[in-house]
Amino acid sequence: MGWRTVVVTQHAKVSLSTGNLVIQTDTDRLHVPVRDVGVLLIQTLQAVITAPAVVALAEVQAKIIFTGRDGQPICTTSGDYSNVQSTVTVGKQMTWSKSRIATLWTRVIASKLQNQIQVVEFVGGETASLRQELDQLEVGDVTNREAVVARRYFPRLFGQDFSRTDLTPVNAALNYGYAILLSAVDQAICTRGYLTCWGIHHTRTDNAFNLGSDLMEPFRPVVD
């Protein structure tokens, strides 16, 4: 899996030549080794990409993300069944014990709350009450400390009247960032041979990315 994120924001053609992505714009011609690419983000409707380029990116488990007219991610591609996929890996995933799942979810939420506290400290907000909630975290977060902290956390960042359900530029930016983050987490899951739909806490039948939705939680504060 590569380490570069390549973002295309203007009229361009993305093609393949001798192991390199060739990005031809109106003014430039750029070459990027395919093996270095982790994510190709096409953030315009004025770009085209050739089939050989798509195949080459899939072979190195790179993800291609397309945005719609509103700039929101609308479609992603990846090699869902990479060369590390196996019945052994998936079999283990689908038979994780309840105690293991509860322990993992507790660690995920603990990391998320700790990172949220650091973000509030960074902006000079009060964190004592958030730390109290972290101290009350139980195995499996059965008392839903995650939700309690969220109700206090976002107003500390964006104002007391802020709500995650409002149609505001801040929420649009957060949703966009979360979508990009989810794509990156899903990419890592796929390249390691696990199923993105089989989660540990998120279990919606209409969500193909339940495990990604779980494992991205500690990293959300980076977007915030």
Tell me the radius of gyration. 20 Å
Helix content: 40-55%
What's the count of strands? 8
User: How many DSSP H or I helices?
Assistant: 8
Structural class call reads alpha/beta
What strand line-up does the widest sheet have? 1-5-7-8
Largest sheet: 4 strands, mixed
Q: Any low-confidence stretches, pLDDT <50, length ≥5?
A: none
The chain-level mean pLDDT equals 91
Beta-strand portion reads 15-25%
End-to-end separation? 26 Å
Your description of this structure?
Homodimer, forms a heterotetramer with a Cas2 homodimer. Keywords: Antiviral defense, DNA-binding, Endonuclease, Hydrolase, Magnesium, Manganese, Metal-binding, Nuclease. This is Type II CRISPR-associated endonuclease Cas1. This protein is of the alpha/beta class. Helices cover 43% and strands 18% of the residues. The protein contains eight helices and eight strands. It has a four-stranded mixed β-sheet with strand order 1-5-7-8, with helices on both faces. The longest helix has 25 residues. The mean pLDDT is 91.
